[in-house]
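Hi there, hope your week has been kind to you so far. Do you reckon you could talk me through the fold, stretch by stretch? I've dropped the whole record in just underneath, so have a look:
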Amino acid sequence: MVRERSGVVLLFVVFAVLLGLLALTVEAARHDLGQWNWFVAVLIAAVKALLIALYFMHVRQSTPLTKMVVVAGVVWLAIMFTLSLADYWTRGWMS
């Protein structure tokens, strides 16, 4: 019984942290950070996604196969972002 209660408390703590990160996202959007806007937004979003995956999607307590699938998905997403950003950043080179 105590373990279940501490699990629920942990989920509420993670929820509170997510709300704090939401407030941080809103506050960061109000300020012009120059070239750091994209980096700050992606960093906050990555931390929120990590917390959601680990605690609310129960990846932390899952089997090694599930963890491997999650890591493979993140690696594939990083590859796609890299290729998309490489295309976007080099569009002006030809004109």
